[in-house]
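pipeline/complex-builder :: batch 7 item 3
reading input block
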Amino acid sequence: MTVAFPSDTAIVGLGESRYGRRGSITEVSEFQLLCEAIAAAAEDAGLDVGEIDGFCSFADERHEPVRIQQTLGIPQMRFSNLVWGAAGGGCSASVMNAALAVHAGICKTVVVYRSLCQGQYARFGQYRPRPIGGSYMTPFGLLTPAQYTALTFRRYMFEQGTTEQQLAAVPLTFRAHAQRNPRAIQFGKPLTKEEYFAARYIATPFRLYDCCLETDGACALIVTSLEKARDLRQKPARILAAAQASNKGWGLGPVASHNMALEDYGTTNSRALAEALFAMAGIGPEDVDVAQFYDAFSGLVLMALEDFGFVPRGGGGPFAAAGNLAWPNGTLPTNTAGGLLSEAYLHGLNLVSEGVRQIRGTSTAQVADAEISFVNSGGGAGHKSALILSR
Amino acid sequence: MSTYLPTQLPGPQPDLDDQPFWDFCKARELRIQACADCGKLRHPPMPACPACRSMRTTWRAVPGTGTVFSFTVCHYPAHASLKDVVPYNVSVVLLDGTDDIRIVSNVIDAEPDEIAIGMRVALAWDEVADGQVLPRFRRAP
Ligand SMILES: [Zn+2]
């Protein structure tokens, strides 16, 4: 029997280095952290590292497969792939490409990885030259993802009547989730609503705690066939759907002159993606038990809730403010490990890891009997991608 | 000449696709790239018309007035030159005389608590380094 792509593939191994604040990891290199994460992912799966024969990542990754292959003494490389885009948008797409390679029989065991030590290299939250589109941003002081996401989210707030009180529910909920997760950088550091509102603005309407962490660390996961997965150590997280897409006008959108379609400006560029994703999965948003939304900035979560159809247009703010994102009592427990805001910022790959843990039943904020786990990738620049995982 | 942001902030870097846009700005003319076949405006400049795929282009003058479509007030200085300048606004201006063309700019005479979506604005050319002139805006009735 032939099983349709991608549900004949699964995520079977999770590996992470330790996570630290930007600049806190100075005694080992970013590349060593990555090697540690890959070794840990293979160990978690019950595989020898030498069985890895495929390598996938997404834009802004610094470490090439050939170098990993050599360093970890991996005998064969059958597949290597990097998704175009800007940082997080290609994260779920890199899992999609791993699944494609396995489905096509090009390779058997793919590692999907991200390493990121902003302390050892450049910071994403600072001015960086942008050869394409930069002329339309930099001279006007539009320099960082916080700022260009603030522009789209400000418009969304205006159109939907969203309030800063509603927005506050996002970082506060995720910080509470991080208090259960010892891996989280914000573990042991609860945040009150008063502290949230007292913090300085970065770019209005985003205050300090609306902006993700800057992290040193590395994260890896292993994708293989569902057939092989059944013989491995962990309960597999089957990849029920994996998709990537971009809407009209978003190509040079947030990282140039902001000419996305007027009616699609206050969004996460995910409406076409949502349609493709749920069509592939054969289910709807109402079937999702637990979600990991790309939360580089809190406002992205409210917009994505609407773009993916979890709530009607304008419903994001009220939904979050009513406690629906919170574990365990919300209707859609979200970013259950703390997310990019409070666990770590690995350009979204740690969100995929948490999506897998929810299927395994090993999250520190485990949704009882979770069967369908949703993950999306990307906020501002580039195209977007998403996954649906199942038992 | 009022320089809203420091001239140490990197300026535009015109390339073969958009040199005319910046040259027109130097002459204090705001011209938006248009398709020479179907007439549709597009911004930023790009080699083909997304509506009809024609690669024949022209440059159409626009009135230079518009409304604030979105904005953010930047409090964090993400470039060293901005340390003493924050807070400043970045505003997306929807240009009059177009269906939907926007440019990212600044409203130079709006205080952080004054700027709002829907605010009427008009061009205020601003000369920066190397004789480049930027299309910034000021409040308009
Ligand atoms: Zn045309």
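note: Chain B has a mean pLDDT of 96.
queue -> next item
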